[in-house]
Task: inverse folding
């Protein structure tokens, strides 16, 4: 359920404009992990009904959020997903906690100002 909510929040984000001056206050690693989870979900599609490629998600989100695109977004996403949670759990675990336990209906937007 949390991954579907993350996908819905990402769809809302992608409808925003660069001119709205939104900024990501989390780490790029978290952002890449979140976008990769949404990509794997396959619910964001292009005008032809095809799942939006990961790099398209990355470019659009980074433009809107004024974040430099990492040299290798796939590697960033992989590293984020592999975190074991000793110091900082992976983004999806934290997202699920905020959504399910804390009742926050828009955890992604907590990282955007």
Result:
């Amino acid at each position: 359920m949390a991954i579907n909510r993350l996908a819905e929040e990402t769809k809302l984000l992608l409808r925003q404009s660069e001119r709205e001056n939104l900024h990501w206050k989390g780490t790029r690693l978290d952002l890449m992990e979140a976008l990769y989870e949404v990509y794997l979900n396959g619910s964001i599609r292009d005008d032809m009904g095809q799942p939006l490629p990961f790099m398209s998600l990355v470019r659009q989100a980074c433009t809107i959020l004024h974040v430099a695109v990492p040299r290798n977004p796939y590697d960033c996403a992989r590293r984020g997903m592999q975190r074991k949670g000793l110091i900082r759990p992976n983004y999806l675990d934290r997202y699920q906690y905020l959504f399910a336990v804390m009742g926050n209906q828009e955890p992604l937007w907590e990282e955007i100002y």
